[in-house]
TrEMBL record:
<keyword id="KW-0503">Monooxygenase</keyword>
<dbReference type="InterPro" id="IPR050121">
    <property type="entry name" value="Cytochrome_P450_monoxygenase"/>
</dbReference>
<keyword id="KW-0479">Metal-binding</keyword>
<dbReference type="GO" id="GO:0020037">
    <property type="term" value="F:heme binding"/>
</dbReference>
<feature type="binding site" description="axial binding residue">
    <location>
        <position position="411"/>
    </location>
    <ligand>
        <name>heme</name>
    </ligand>
</feature>
<keyword id="KW-0560">Oxidoreductase</keyword>
<dbReference type="GO" id="GO:0004497">
    <property type="term" value="F:monooxygenase activity"/>
</dbReference>
<dbReference type="InterPro" id="IPR002403">
    <property type="entry name" value="Cyt_P450_E_grp-IV"/>
</dbReference>
<dbReference type="GO" id="GO:0016705">
    <property type="term" value="F:oxidoreductase activity, acting on paired donors, with incorporation or reduction of molecular oxygen"/>
</dbReference>
<dbReference type="InterPro" id="IPR036396">
    <property type="entry name" value="Cyt_P450_sf"/>
</dbReference>
<comment type="similarity">
    <text>Belongs to the cytochrome P450 family.</text>
</comment>
<dbReference type="Pfam" id="PF00067">
    <property type="entry name" value="p450"/>
</dbReference>
<protein>
    <submittedName>
        <fullName>Cytochrome P450</fullName>
    </submittedName>
</protein>
<dbReference type="InterPro" id="IPR001128">
    <property type="entry name" value="Cyt_P450"/>
</dbReference>
<dbReference type="GO" id="GO:0005506">
    <property type="term" value="F:iron ion binding"/>
</dbReference>
<dbReference type="InterPro" id="IPR017972">
    <property type="entry name" value="Cyt_P450_CS"/>
</dbReference>
<keyword id="KW-0408">Iron</keyword>
Length: 485
């Protein structure tokens, strides 16, 4: 232990003694206590801008280093070996590829389909999924008076949303009001295992055991493979340009198509990356609106002033507060709770005044970075959407926050997530009055992502809202919730 701690230039970097010589410190906080997102921030408060959190790993707190560690181009810090945990099938995997050149070429081959302009072409399909969600909330909760387990229902929505955009049809969780084919149960099982596997690397060989593969992802994997094989067999009868079609049409610079194994990996990653991140964001948006009724009221007034039951993305851009509420929620409760680890490039680097040799693992946690009062000011932990409406603050936030990561590995689905979160929030507000139940049961759990469990919500049709057929004359009411689909 003495040698692990001291036979390295990292010996001078402050941090807990146990962390400097064993992975057990992190295992205790990240796996056993499940509060690691806050524990890490407290470490930085105690030890400063750079902290040793494992024998070969440091965490950095100063937001100015975001552009150094998560950059574009030649100077990129590559992803570290923690990403090898994703089960390899031998084909390129966008989210876990560590080689910079391979990643750049692979991302370039598909990136055009994920720009804001490209994603907005699917707006009418998003509207249809949102409509299913609103109708299901109305039928199952507003009309019955039953409490809604919003932890689960927000996942139904985001799973429907991502399967619809990837495969051209949703898996129908909202309509069925249940976890179709056990896909969400599989995702949760995998999420529960992920800190354990990530922070105790010697456990990795176990992931190859048949029994773990089967319990973890059996149904989920079966659904993905079935949809892809069907597309290969039957072509694309609807002609809809969904993401799967985009992947099949995509070409590398030299003209070659993506092999099927690579397409499968992309589809897997999209359906893995979206439901948990976006659903936890939606839960936190609802919580913040319930706890900040002044902001809620301002938003309602602006939405009603639009005078339409089906505002488009473009209409909603006239309400900067709405996008600000979504971004502020993501800033205060970033779904990704782990510290986006990278490997220090060849030759080593000096960071926060400390020399780090090549291959040191280095990372920044969005939770810690966003909580840095020295950089952002004393009110950084307060819910203040207006900070996103001040051009100076917004510039700093867009550049140095880590909600979607930064640089060449920034989230590919950022626009999908933002459009859907903004639009679904608007529809929930327009259609329902709502509030939290049993607030003391709501808890955040660190599972690499920071999930929100135990969230119950009541919904009532909003008087005079699109679903309401008892109050107000026809002329006073906005049109019924129909979407462009
Ligand atoms: C609120 C929702 C979301 C959040 C907060 C989020 C957050 C992130 C973050 C922080 C990263 C960087 C990880 C790293 O650097 O290690 C990332 C990467 C990624 N995300 Fe998201 N994500 C969200 C939604 C989505 C959606 C809807 C998709 C679906 C297409 C998606 C696909 C990806 C992919 C493919 C990557 C890897 C990109 C690469 O390495 O080139 N994400 N996301």
């Amino acid at each position: 232990m003495h040698r692990i701690r001291n036979d390295t230039p990292l010996r001078d970097i402050p941090g807990p003694w146990l962390a400097s010589c064993s992975p057990l410190w992190r295992f205790w906080y990240a796996v056993c206590k499940s509060n690691y997102h806050h524990d890490l921030t407290n470490l930085h408060r105690k030890y400063g801008n750079i902290v040793r959190i494992a024998p070969n790993e440091v965490s950095v707190w100063d937001p100015e280093y975001v552009s150094e560690i998560y950059s574009h181009g030649e100077n990129v810090y590559p992803k570290c070996d923690m990403y090898d945990i994703a089960l390899p099938n031998g084909f390129f995997n966008l989210a876990v590829e560590r080689d910079i050149k391979t990643h750049t070429l692979g991302r370039r081959a598909i990136a055009k389909d994920y720009s804001m302009t490209a994603i907005l072409k699917s707006e009418k399909y998003f509207d249809a999924v949102i409509k299913d969600f609103i109708t299901a909330l109305d039928k199952n909760f507003a009309q019955t008076g039953k409490k809604c387990n919003f932890t689960v229902w927000s996942e139904y929505f985001t799973y429907d949303m991502i399967t619809d955009i990837v495969f051209g049809k949703s898996f129908g969780f909202c309509n069925a009001a249940r976890d179709v084919e056990g896909g969400l149960r599989d995702l949760r099982q995998m999420l529960n295992l992920s800190p354990f596997l990530s922070y105790l690397p010697w456990i990795w060989p176990l992931t190859q055991l048949e029994i773990i593969k089967k319990t973890g992802m059996k149904h989920y994997a079966r659904c993905m493979v079935r949809e892809i094989q069907k597309r290969v067999r039957e072509g694309n009868p609807t002609g809809r340009q969904d993401l799967l079609q985009g992947l099949m049409d995509a070409r590398y610079q030299d003209g070659h198509a993506l092999p099927l194994g690579e397409i499968t990996n992309h589809a897997y990653i999209f359906v893995l990356a979206a439901p948990d991140t976006a659903s936890v964001a939606l839960r936190n948006i609802i919580i913040n609106l319930c706890r900040n009724r002044d902001v809620y009221q301002q938003l309602m007034d602006s939405l009603l002033a639009l005078n339409t039951a089906n505002p488009t993305w473009k209409d909603l851009q006239n309400i900067p507060l709405l996008t600000a509420v979504v971004k502020e929620t993501l800033r205060l409760h970033p779904p990704a709770g782990f510290s986006l680890p990278r490997a220090v490039p060849a030759g080593g680097r000096t960071v926060c005044g400390k020399f780090l040799p090549e291959n040191t693992t280095i990372g920044m946690s969005a939770w810690s970075v966003h909580a840095n009062t020295e950089y952002w000011g004393e009110d950084t932990l307060e819910f203040k959407p207006e900070r996103w409406m001040d051009p100076n603050q917004m510039y700093k936030l867009e550049r140095h926050s880590l909600i979607f990561g930064q640089g060449s590995r920034q989230c590919l689905g950022k626009h999908i997530a933002m459009i859907n979160l903004v639009k679904v929030t608007a529809q929930i507000l327009l259609n329902f009055d709502f509030g939290l139940l049993n607030e003391k049961n709501i808890k955040e759990v660190f599972l690499l992502l920071v999930v929100v469990d135990g969230m119950d919500v009541w919904f009532k049709r909003r008087a005079g809202g699109p679903l309401d057929d008892t109050i107000g004359s026809e002329s006073e009411k906005p049109a019924a919730v129909t979407t462009g689909a």
